[in-house]
Amino acid sequence: MNISQMSDGTLHSHTLKILNRIEDILSRPCTQSDSHICRTIADELGYSLSYVRDIFKISTGISIRKYITRRRYTIIVSSYSADEFCQLKMHETIQGVKNFKLKVFREFPMLKSTYTQDVLQPPIEEDALSTSIDRAYETQMLSEVFDDITENRNLFEILDGEETILLQDLRDVFVDLDNIYFKYRDIVFKIIASVYVKEAVYRDYHASALFGLPLYSYSP
């Protein structure tokens, strides 16, 4: 999904509505599946299910089903004291969730060693959402820049991860270009690019100059 034509206000507003509905639904005992909750929210807000999934992932960096699961487990776990939680059986069904404690440990492994709510999933606050959306737009912009740079050359896809922009070709081959960095709006990005040389190739002087390494592209 390309968000370059969507205003940040629209993305923020729609995602915030989804977040609020998730909290409303989970604030009461809920045995609906995560998928059912997603469909319910989409129907109530008048969005398509694919739109809900896409904008939520873009805005928050986490899939909506994953977020619902983590919030559901967090709300249930938070209702128990440390002693009460420890006494739960591993395969016990809690509020419709089979093997609840086992699934909680898989989602929040640090709970195995000590009971602390600090490792659970808090609701995404509005300020944090705004920051996440700003980053999504910057990533989209950078992706478009590199699309222009790499057009008719090796195919790259930009993947967002912390302070790293990862360039990945369709063959999932990576080459670390010896500490190549660039800076954008005070954010330092490390460039990692893939190089795949077929039998018939030609020296790509543009890409070589860009990355500071002898790079080759597919013959047209």
Tally of helical runs: 8
What is the CA–CA distance across the termini? 28 Å
Q: Number of domains in the coordinates?
A: 2
Helix content: 40-55%
SSE succession: HHHHHHHEEEEEHE
Shape verdict: globular
Stretches where pLDDT falls below 50 for ≥5 residues? 152-179, 192-200
> Mind telling me the C-alpha Rg?
22 Å
Largest sheet descriptor: 4 strands, mixed
Q: Give the integer mean of the pLDDT values.
A: 75
- State the secondary-structure class: alpha+beta
The portion of residues forming beta strands comes to 15-25%
The total strand number stands at 6
Strand order of the largest sheet: 1-2-4-3
Short description:
By secondary structure, this protein is an alpha+beta fold.
Description:
With 220 residues, the protein is of the alpha+beta class. The chain contains eight helices and six strands; from the N terminus they run αααααααβββββαβ. It has helices at residues 8-26, 34-45, 49-60, 64-78, 82-87, 100-107, 126-150, 205-211; strands spanning 157-161, 164-168, 175-184, 187-193, 201-203, 216-218. Strands 1-2-4-3 form a four-stranded mixed sheet, covered by helices on one side. The chain has a two-stranded antiparallel sheet with strand order 5-6. It is globular.
